[in-house]
Fold these 3 entries.
Entry 1:
Amino acid sequence: MSILYDEGQQAIATESRRVLEARVSKEELLPLLETSGRYHEGYWTTAKEQGWTALALPEAYSGLDLGLVELGLIAHQAGRSLSGAPFLTSNFGAAKAIELYGTEDQKAKWLPGLASGETIGAVAFASGANALPARPALTLTGERLDGVMTGVSAGLAADIAVVFANGPGMPVLAVAELADVKRTAIASFDNSRLYADLEFADTPAETLVTGGAAREAALHILALQAVITAHEQAGGAEAMMEIARDYAVTRRAFGQPIGAFQSIKHRIAEIYGLVELARANCIHAASREGQSDFITAAAAARISATEAYDTASRDCVQIHGGIGVTWELGLHLHTRRARSLAIEQGNLLFWEDVLVDRLTGEAA
Amino acid sequence: MSDLEAYRAKAAAWLESMVPTYGKAARKGLSEADDLALARKYQKAKFDAGYAGINWPTEFGGQGKGHLEKVTFDTEEMKHGFPSFYFGISLGMPIPVLMQFGEDKAWVKERVLKALQGEEIWCQLFSEPAGGSDLAGLRTKAEPDGNGWKINGQKVWTSWAHYSDYGVIVVRTDPNVPKHKGLTYFWVDMKAPGVTVRPIKLVGGDSHVNEVFFDDVKIGDDHRMSPVGGGFAVAIATLMIERYVATDSAGFGPHLDLFVELAKDTELNGKPAIEDGRIRQQIARNYAMRSGLQSITARAMAMMQAGMTPGPEGSLNKLVAVRSRQKLSELAIDLQGSDGFTYDDHASQKEDWTSSWINAPTGRIAGGSDETLLNTIAEKILGLPQDHRPDKGVPFNQIPA
């Protein structure tokens, strides 16, 4: 089972690429690395104006009723342009959690704001290496949350967070307002992602789902986010491949373009293979939303996209030689993003285990 | 059900009915001669059922259907281990080229029908000891001889030449011009005087490929299938014939399920190997790679069905799949430890890890080596420059040997 993009979807890809190329430049992205607590506001304004925040949400709550395929196309372009704001994925994950598991009241309360982008959402499940910990770092007592979540993507700016917590004797998925939560910005190698530690203390929270279903729900939300992130990774990898190619046909050494040397051309051809495998897995995974093999497809997309982006950015720098490691050229923006995206939404180790669990029917 | 799905269902049912007579179990223990005899009967049965020459024109005895039906049938057929590979080259390249470039249409039709029914086999005489990746560097020559030509030289890696009735061949007819321009394309009778076929035994123990020697082999000018000096273009047309063939994300080795089973059944340091992180990582990464290839193939099929041209990413299949099959097979043997020494040279490469492993190097070379494929991707898809070629524009007989 696979899909071909239709005309409308192709138009989304073309238009989002055009808009992002016009509005996001590396000159704006570089300074963001040197301070913490700032992100690319122009990108977020663009995302809101273009309706990307509303894209995959239901019409009944001010959404556009499109799906993962369309949002994936935009994420791919955002990855190419290093959009510099984490919210496209985190907002979507938080909104989907409320849409899929919330009550009518909860949906009415949160979804329109998340759809317009006026409310910024975060998803906070992980505890260090564990994307879905056996013992979550937060405890829900009554309707109050306590504990510290570390390294929450978009955590510094988010208005609400969907969290995975210990409920009374069972895990629980809940949504909390962050207005009174103490936040500490993390000095990161990719500062514009607004990573923060969140300290919950008697914080009001509303339950979305409890018990075994909460863990399944959390995995499903992670998988949805992973597919979006994988598209972003594939887009970044594709950009690195093109930058490497363009340099290899222009830069000359020993009387010929360096792209004529097999050590260079084969390296770029290998990246092409990784990018295309990742892209194919991403498109497939996006088209499997709602099907029984969705988690498996999401894991495969995540694994191949992580490998593609890391390898492409690593090799692109190597192909450039000395100029590749300068601050100004900005290749490091991709190197940084490749690694930050590799950790967000569950690391490679997590998704490898999820995939093998699915294939074998047993957990390690 | 779409037309194509209906076609698939019908083909699958027919193939299923052939399993008792021609399937894996029926072929077990047969000598190669007996297997080939069985293969000829199977090919005839395919022809009679309308599954031979599926996408070929009806005027030559084909079925006149589309490429999609052909790939669909091949995909279903691959599941059963039928002896169809003896005809793979013959029906894959030489016969389609013959249909396209053969002058005597009545004679061509006779050959096509015989080949489709498994009565005649054709081989493709391209590679030489000095011209493999560099096809245009070949040295076998044809000189004018009366009204025809006289061939002298040697070909190598010729699949099924020892069973072939005819072959298509590229030879040098003019050494005084740059290498691509001095080649001409012919067909030859493999039983003609002066043709000697010598099988080459490969690492896996089988001898599907041959050296073929030509000593004063005389052919008429009516054997010529290209203008004199225009053989390279026809050779390239031959190699381009089937860009989208039925592919296999397992690299024509075992399916990943078999590795998962092995890992479940094998104990490593007192625990099932499936619990070992190194094993799990390889399973996960192989799955991701294979599912990517499958998605690329599925999209290519969908594009063809929609009347569009698939993207170039279909060219990744062999490069990526065979290489990873080689590594996974190594790991599977490692995993068996001292139980891993056993080797049965009749075992199937698709079911046996050792057989898969020992034959994998052949897969990485035949049909374009990894390096050749990477060059093709780099140059044709990504627009990177060609390698430095010192023989460019130099007359063939002035290229330093």
Entry 2:
Amino acid sequence: MSRRTITRGRTRDGWLFISPAVAVLAVFLAFPVLMALWVSVSDWRGVGSPFAGDVSFVGLDNYRSILTGGTLAQRDFGTALRNNFYYVLLVVPLQTALALALAALVHAKALRGRGFFRTAFYFPSVTSAVAITVLWLFLFDTRGAVNEVLGWIGLAGPNWFQDPRGILHLGLSAVGVDGAPAAMSGGGFLGITWWDWAAGPSVAMFALILLAVFTTSGTFMLLFIAALNNIGEEIDEAGMIDGANAWQRFWHLTLPMLRPTLFTVLTLGLIGTWQVFDQIYTGTQGGPAKTTVTPAYLSYESAFADQQWGQGAAIAFILFAIIVVLTLVQRAALRSRP
Amino acid sequence: MSVRTASPRQHLLLYGLLAVLAVVYIAPFLIDIATSFKTEAEAAESPVSLVPQTFTTAAYERLFLRSDFPLWFANSAVVTLLVTLGRVLFDSMAGYALARIPFRGRAVVFALVVAVMAVPNVVLLIPKFLVINQLGMFNSYSGLVIPLLADAAGIFIMKNFFESIPVSVEEQARIDGAGTFRLFWSVVLPMARPAVVTIVILSFQGSWNELNHFVVASNDQDLFTLTKGVAQLASGALSQGTQYPIKLAAAAVMTIPVAVVFFVFQKRIMNASAGAVKE
């Protein structure tokens, strides 16, 4: 056998081995993205092939209609961005802090029942988003378990999944600010007034925020536990000899060493929270008053329910861009730190 | 917080805090199971109690005898089985090729796999539908299954594992005249058992819990999987009333298979998940 035949044989074997997986990835993931890119700049309405002769190129019209012009499509997109923005703003720090706290509590080898606690905290992460959302609808029902428990301590819980009021607006009205100040009712962004941007997540969205924190904190806890195990105990012991208390040791010694994991968790959190879909499809379908519509859900709804395929695809690509940009920003922030 | 050096009071505080947290994490599931055995009136009346006053299996009877639930369950089982088999085979073949066979075009393929991993799943909702529809696979089992048969993360896990096996193992078999496929099937794959088990677990969990692919791949009632069926149930498809016992029974039953796999492979899942995070 000459060297050339061997190379040729290996190339044949290599392609033979890799082609089933490559075919699936290329046909169902890579190619569809290109196809959707075309749909996002075309006037295809869901009938026939997007490549048929009667479908034409419309440039950036689909993007324009969701970004400009004061149309309903633009207001919906603005609302979806606002909703998801608050979701990210609350879920990412909460899930990260809770995951870190859980990991710090259960990583000690001497802790009795360590395995039990880890299992308890991680279990929600392995179950399906659909099952947990169904459970959440029951727990956060007006007369559900959460409101009953709140009642034990004298609090009247809200009508969680029916309440479209923003929690920041609720806070402001508690201190007597009920309407928009003049400066905030005029201008705005993406068809939403500044006052509405400042609404905060609705009560309904807040229930979904708690749902996300409940299901993801266990997953991220595992990442932190793995990192804590890698640090080892010598450093902690050195700190102890220097007379640092537990909190000082954690804050000044452990936390700086967890920075790489912290950034991984934040990045995964950002990517995940901008994609929230299952919980909304199952639970609220965007209601009440569109306060739980997210870009991912809006993209789905525009295309499949309203047959606005171009707009739906455009929303998906804008969402993609948001995720990519935020990830890059975060990477840069990580690199600039010492 | 080091347990060894804590004072008795700190000890008590730590365990107290952990106990409260554990209750918060576990109680929802206990409430789920308890409520599924209550009457609808009682579910509304006392949503927190863990012991049904009138114990009834009406919700389960309704679910299994007079709804499409068994069909959804069967569909989920078939899809999960096929996807898991496919991923074990295709991911490990691809991983082996990327790790061990120096073929022309490998760098391009590797770049494609990396690129595919970076695309967020939700962005693919419309694209996937377009292709499945275009290929005439909409509303068919092939549309539910084939697009999930390989995944980039699984290929990565297999590639990393194969790279950790010493080359000398294969050289001996090659000298004995084994071809690439025989080498892969009888020598390398049996050695990759830990990695294969990881792929089995991740694929099982992933495809059993998958929702958004099934949402766009079909709309035929006969092809509903558990996730899609129960999501529809949640939005009140079973006539009027809240029907909480039935919904929660459905949620409990669909959780059982993943719970069983989780408790059987607990250690491995906890470790694998520290590397590959499910969203």
Entry 3:
Amino acid sequence: MRVALFITCLADQFYAEAGVAAVRLLRALGVEVDFPEDQTCCGQPAFNAGHWGEARALAKRSLEVFREAEYVVLPSGSCASMVRNHYPELLPGDQGALALSEKTYELSQFLVRVLGVEKLGEGLRGRRVAYHHGCHALRELGVKAEPLLLLQNAGAELLPWEAAEECCGFGGLFSVKLPEVSLSMADRKLATLPKAEVLTSTDAGCLLHLAGRMAKLGQGVRVAPLATLLWEAYAGQG
Amino acid sequence: MRAKAKRYPKEAARLLRERPSVREAVTGATLHFERNRLRAYGEIDTEAWRERARRVKDHVLTHLDHYLELAEGRLRENGVQVHWAEGPEEAHRLLREVVARHGVRRAVKAKSMLTEELGVNPLLESLGVEVYETDLGEYLIQLLGEPPSHIVGPAIHLTLKEIQELFHGRFGTPPDAPPEALAQVARRVLREAFLTAELGISGANFLVAETGTLALMENEGNIRLSTSLPKVHVAFVGIEKLLPRLQDLALFLPLTARAATGQRLSTFVSLLQGPAREGEEGPEEVHVVLVDHGRTALLADPEAWEVLRCLRCGACLNACPVYRQTGGHPYGYVYSGPIGAVLDPGLLGLEEAYPLPYASTLCGACQEACPVKIPIPRLLLTWRHRAVEEGLAPAWERGAIGAFARVMGSPALYRLLSKALRGLPLPQELQVYLPVLKAWAEGRGPLRPSPRPFHELWKEIKEEARGG
């Protein structure tokens, strides 16, 4: 089986190690991994802000870049949802958009639903983990059980978090257009954060936003993308 | 009501800065409602109820002319005087006539968002009529001179302390009077109003077409009194509030109550069938005003009409993490929160309501809560797309998105940006990013990229598999 990784621009720039983790993990599970090097961004920021012309051009690029792929896997729920749910809306009648949509998965979704893997190893034994449900992974892609299952089966202690399913306030351009509201939402999220060793999520955007806010407030919790933790689950690293 | 939606970003920021107690009060109250809703939804086959309700509403909305005619005929048969109001002018004309004909000096009013749209209170006051809001929350904000902050809980943004201070100043109650004592005072004032008012005003949760029945939901009993004690009752009904059959109430009353407050049914439901007949008690005269105020035009909009399914339950406000930070006032119009963000552009025009579709992170919690499955995130995207098409996006945003699209459209430029993020000076072409990055970093500390981007690391690990 061959997977083309769509690493997404935020992960590429800010959580590069998550990409490496995803590659190693998939290979360890017997999957051949490609990284089409012409990829950039899925176009979601432009699409969500209403600039559909710009988003459409980027969607068309992605169609070309991933045309030959058997599966496309992203370490990001919201970018995966952009490709899966919004590309066909943005490019109505485009068979390529439909085809790409159908073969695109968020990483944990791919592991559980396509590979049928529910346990990666026990490398997270005893680790106290807080999981933030990225909104698009949760409500647009329906990815809820998969990451929790993989973390739990790796021995992690998933901490109950009142606001686990609440939006963190990132929202792409929202965080710049309405900065005060965005920060206020992050503060609410963080005020309810349980005493975790590590805070994780599928989405680099949410994590950047929360990690940045914690840094500003002097809160020191490790923040790691799900892909990184899943690799640790497999490889047993600390 | 005059819309101030354009000021949303400024007002939201100002409120967070100047009145932090609002955030605390609104978050607490909405979380309470939200937990109740989840419990109440958990008791039923929610998906089936919502789907059924969606279909009934879609049916009514797509055959609205038929049901409006039917409703008008039935209402008249029931002895109700039916009026049509395109907007506030006609509504005001009718009220002026009623006030003059009956010598109205005092009116009692049930909470109604539509009458906020129409500016009923200022009109009556200009005619020398004393108006009493009789819903306790609505009465509080009337005393404060504020608009409702929430569709269901108009005073949701107030703390007990603020209410204590208000009553202390107004009625001389002790500054630390318990809520029960405050309610006693309000009850005394409002009872007097009920007994002496010549006019009662209400909205309607539903209007059943086949029987001409007005259905009103409440928890305080004030609507019952407003619609039964005064000799004249005027009900303002948005044309989207119609239901085809009486039996539809069996679905919509409990569904609305569950969505709004987590109740199985509201404490009181009034089904009104016109003025009192011989030997009955009740109003001598009942008027129903069917109000358009932008709804027909919105119904004709193929991409935005679904918002008219709205039951005004407020569930989306309670579920919305954006609304929770500020309550409803910064939205600047009658309808706030997620539903306001997609309804107000339809009622006011996008230019007037421009920032509201952006008052969301598209998290989707609103759609999940909505009892009639209004696809709010999709409608938000539609209004945003139109805003951009109409040139309403600010220049900085157009610049930033344009630069973004150019960079992301070219792997070479993208690699240049990648280097710039790691310390090389940003080329001229990309400098439009700087203010955006700066704005971001202000509340969150500087952005710290990975030492090397993945696309560089890939070159090293590409061969790893072959090595072993």
